[in-house]
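Following up on my earlier thread - several people asked me to post the actual chain instead of describing it. Fair enough. Here it is, all 153 residues.
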Amino acid sequence: MSSQRLTELTGIVLVVLQFGLLAVLGWQALTYTTGSIPIYSLVLLFSGVFLGLWAVSANRPGNFYIRPVPKPGGELIEHGPYRVIRHPMYLSLMLVGLGTALMSMQAVAWISWTALVLVLTAKAILEERALQQQFPEYRDYCGRTWRFFPGLF
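Reply from S.P.:
Thanks for posting it. Predicted structure:
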């Protein structure tokens, strides 16, 4: 199997895992939340949704894939949330996932959220390798931005 094919398959597996984990987190939040939703969960959910919508609005239509590979003929986006964070869509999913884990407070939700963070980190690393090949300026961009969390990672 070629290196490129292995990378493509890895990307597909990571996307499937991402959606599966998000489904588990959503299910946990819907079935195990009792009473009202804690305010900190709502803050995380709304922050994640806002960041995701901001990231989508900063992109031109059709400039991104759900798989961790750059679109042929795509452009490197460096405005909007991308000025500071290289993967705001992944961070938005982490925030929403954390908000849902906090809603249910079940071990399954915490394990799923941790796995989601690991999957999204793996996707980001795979994507960054491909972006460095497609965009020579990507290495400089990485030097002035954070992967997910400004000031941390």
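The helical segments are 3-32, 39-58, 88-104, 107-134, 138-144. That should answer part of your original question.
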